[in-house]
């Protein structure tokens, strides 16, 4: 009986760890600062930031800006390339826009303010497919792979090892809980 009692904290810990691992969705402040959505200091600043991050389904990006003078427009890839804001897929005007990345693949955002897109206030976010989450120790992509050509959408860079291992740890501790419970 003593051993059973001693197991309880371990079980609780395992359960806790597996819960953390499964609720991995994160929130990203675009550009890593506030206000985040404004004319960038260099034209590709937003995409440089985006390329340093690995976005997964369920993650949220946060864009803060002055709602009186700016907005966020989700557009098609074509309209993103040409900064055509006339027919956005979605527009956000609340000044503190949270967008949940609910599917894999690329998302394209541009500023709705006059000329801001042309000056580089545009952002492409590539969300890794669910398949990539379960891949473990793939090497980080080489710089040439992270380039902003649209071809790379068809061959997204592999997930970093920590994303996959986080999930694996979750699965393994979940399995451990089940195994221990079965023994008890
Ligand atoms: C902008 O996009 C809209 C619809 O997506 C299209 O009708 C229009 O011709 C485009 N304008 C330019 C300048 O390409």
Automatic annotation (TrEMBL):
Membrane topology, from the record: Lipid-anchor; GPI-anchor
CDD domains xref list: OsENODL1_like
Compartments in which it is found: Cell membrane
Methyltransferase keyword on record: no
Residues covered by the Phytocyanin domain: 26-129
GO molecular function annotations of the record: electron transfer activity
InterPro entries: Cupredoxin (IPR008972), ENL_dom (IPR041846), Phytocyanin-like (IPR039391), Phytocyanin_dom (IPR003245)
Range of residues in the leader sequence: 1-25
One Pfam family hit: Cu_bind_like
Highest taxon of source: Eukaryota
Primary location recorded for the protein, binned into one broad class: membrane
Keyword Transcription regulation attached: no
Alphabetic keyword roster: Cell membrane, Disulfide bond, Glycoprotein, GPI-anchor, Lipoprotein, Membrane, Signal
Family: Belongs to the early nodulin-like (ENODL) family.
Name this protein carries in UniProt: Early nodulin-like protein 1
Record organism: Sesamum indicum
